[in-house]
Amino acid sequence: MGKGGIPEIKLLNVGTRLHDIRKLKSDCCKTFTRGKNPLLCGLLASSSNLTDQEYSSTSLPSIVSPPSRSRAQSYAFDNYAAFSGERLSCRSEMRIFSPVAVLSILLSFFASGSFSIENFRQAFPIIEPDPGHTKLRLSREGLEAIERITNPIAAVAVIGPYRSGKSFLLNQLLSLSCYEGFGVGHMRDTKTKGIWVWGAPVELDIDGVKTSVFYLDTEGFESIGKSNVYDDRIFALATVMSSVLIYNLPETIREADISRLSFAVELAEEFYGRFGQDVAFEPAKLLWLIQRDFLQGKSVQEMVDEALRRVPNTNGDKNIDQVNQIRDSLAIMGDNSTAFSLPQPHLLRTKLCDLKDDELDSIYVKKRDQLKTVVSSIIRPKIVQGKSLNGKEFVSFLEQILEALNKGEIPSTGSLVEVFNKGILERCLKLYSSRMSNLGLPTSEESLQRAHEGSSKAAMEAFDEQHFGRHHAKKSAEQLVEEVEKVYKNFVLANELQSSKLCEALYIRCEEKMDQLQVLRLPSMAKFNAGFLQCDQSFERECVGPSKSNYEMRMMKMLGKSKSLFIKEYNHRLFNWLVAFSLVMVVVGRFIIKFILIEIGAWILFIFLETYTRMFWTSESLYYNPVWHGIVRTWEAVVYSPVLDLDRWAIPLGAIATILVLYWRCYGRRKRSRWALPLYNNQKDQRRSE
């Protein structure tokens, strides 16, 4: 005790045990009733309420010892007001401490530089869980302990179920007590949250290179209140970070342990690949550490080899295939794995922290020392992309891996990887189908092929971005290619069907058009040729797809036959029309209009047509006569032109002509004008006048 009963501050240092702090707290309570140093008592009270894990990772304020401000300081300041109000529950009538004393203590607290990390011989968190225990985040306090290292770095990580003794094992490897090293808990809940690092690396000479070795403690999996995805991220991150991965298992190897390790390696490889792109994943040295008490029977190496051996599957059982696939995925670890057994250190596991080496099981101590040698022999600097990493490079690598790990959607070990990839496969197929559907059918085979290639590429890129596991994804990728081809074949068939329907409709429309041209009231070669050309152009423009070539051949045959038939019928129909027309004009010129020249012209045409065919026995020869060609040109000019289609307007024009003739017949005679051309009426009028 100091003067006035105040505890000696110099007695409190980083190595001070919790029971010493609790004793000082009791002494402080006694002195506090006399108004002595309440702030120090508050700090001691907060520190004494910490768990072993929390205390082992903290240091007291500068008035206690120089190291950095840690969780003990935070607890002290946060609880100081409540502590001073409660007066340590010692007496309700305690006096309020002097403000001058508080100010003096705080000034010394800041002046001492207590907020800078100077003592690294403690555990620091480097990876912490978010409040929902689903994702991970970095802790700058722990990263600063790593960034200061300029040598190549190696990391030894211990993974395994919670309450399996990982923290105690690390303390044993570091030759630290529970009060100095990683916190060890004896309660049923897990003590380590996230990933912790021992701030003081072990310096080793590896192949002539001075290497700083960090030891990592990981949060145990299978504890309550966490998601499987969180456990898998911890497991995978430890796999990526470490140079040596110690898989700490109690008593034996379960199938679930193999499956979880396989999944973690697959996950690490996946996100390492996303970070390093085409750089191959370089796995850590794997050490199977089996904690067991029985020494008879198979060795641990035989146990591990047997557990990882493929299971014969003569009947093609899918479940056995899955078991073998899990073992195949561990092939990446290859010769990098070894096995080691470690017996229990003592029967009283809750008292391990209070036992010295001479009180532990002698076999355990011997095997522990052997384990230290084995671990030291397999440690190698962490290599990324063929280069060893120093502290800053290791932290940068960790930041990028963690970002990829948190950003990516990953399955959990509770769900099959194939099921996860199947969902991605279905989404990629949907993407492919939607892009293909936007094309619109029918279309040309070249356009369909280009759309298929583009959509297939987009689907594969989406799958590459979202899939999980390189080994598992290979099978899923092959399945995606097969499914895409199936969907593409359906699109090809649909395109053929739609093309056939469209071209058939166009063919029928042209066929009907040709049939209509065959039965024109006034046959016109010009009109037929115009309709023929319109049909051919519309078919060529609108008919698309694989059926176009077949229908083009049918179209050419149909149009050729229609044109030949029209030409053949055209001359006959035109001949008959001209014969009928000449007779009609004879009647019109003689009895209706009574125009002599019209009647004479009509008779000449009629006589020519009839006598020519009689003289040459057939009308076929007429069609090659130049006179006939002249008649045809005149007919075509009258019947059809871009301005007037007489076939369409024949009836209206005939009605108009009839009206004009009737009008002339009724009212034209009353006029006494003389005609320039001879009319039958003029002759009669002359006779009457005589």
UniProtKB/TrEMBL annotation:
The entry's family comment says: Belongs to the TRAFAC class dynamin-like GTPase superfamily. GB1/RHD3 GTPase family.
Q: Name one GO molecular function term.
A: GTP binding
Please name the PROSITE patterns in this protein's record: G_GB1_RHD3
User: Any idea which UniProt keywords this protein has?
Assistant: GTP-binding, Hydrolase, Membrane, Nucleotide-binding, Transmembrane, Transmembrane helix
Is Transmembrane a UniProt keyword of this protein? yes
Q: What is this protein called?
A: Guanylate-binding protein 4
Which PANTHER family did the record assign? GUANYLATE BINDING PROTEIN
Give the source species: Sesamum alatum
Kindly name one Pfam family recorded for this protein: GBP_C
What InterPro entries does this protein's entry cite?
G_GB1_RHD3_dom, Guanylate-bd/ATL_C, Guanylate-bd_C_sf, Guanylate-bd_N, P-loop_NTPase
Superkingdom of origin organism:
Eukaryota
Where does the record place the GB1/RHD3-type G domain?
150-270
Q: Give TM segment ranges.
A: 574-593, 600-617, 649-667
